[in-house]
Design goal:
two-stranded antiparallel ribbon
Length: 251
Amino acid sequence: MQIDLNADLGEGFGVWRLGDDMALLDIVTSANVACGFHAGDPVTIRRTCAAAVDRGVAIGAQVSYRDLAHFGRREMDVEPEELCAEVLYQLAAVDGIARAMGGRVAYVKPHGALYNRIVRDPLQAQAVVEAVADYDPALPLLTLPGSAVHAAAAREGVETVAEAFADRAYTPAGTLVPRREPGAVIHDPAAVAARAVRMAVEGTVTAVDGTEVPVRARSICVHGDTPDAVRLAQGVRDGLLAAGVVLQAFA
């Protein structure tokens, strides 16, 4: 049994630092590197990519709405052509830096509001998929099981990889509880680790109403911007290994 463990990294900007990227890179197998639209800047991207290459961690481009002020968590209505171009711009920038550091972008993961929007919005999902297909159709796209992205990607010949979130609450429909609602983010290390093991071994998660939701996933995310993120991620890693799960990047 194999699972990928990913985290959002490179989310500092200028003098502002968020999370402990170097510590997390010693734990995860894939790094979702912010592309500068919700967080990240050229120096941060360069340092994060270089550190990921040194550790053999897969690099993903974490594309977002252009929303530095709200960390990419504000839903926006962007025309499909503009969204496609902006995703393409972000992807090309991070891949260029990654290649200069001796690596490359191996997959794409939308961030925040864009991630959740394209789960249910076929038009915006199509725009994101078209950007990936224009740049490199061999790049997998991380998304939730049941996302509108799967159908759009199938039409364009882009692979999708199902993802689950160890530290986020789920609705009965299998979507993520919005962050503005109480309990949307889970902070207890033991609970997060136990959820990750169930996701990997049993393919299920308990939703907020107590029902069991299927979450067959190849990758599990632990957010890098939450308090005590390193401890949470280490707990997830230890729990998965103890359960006999092999940690390996999907890309």
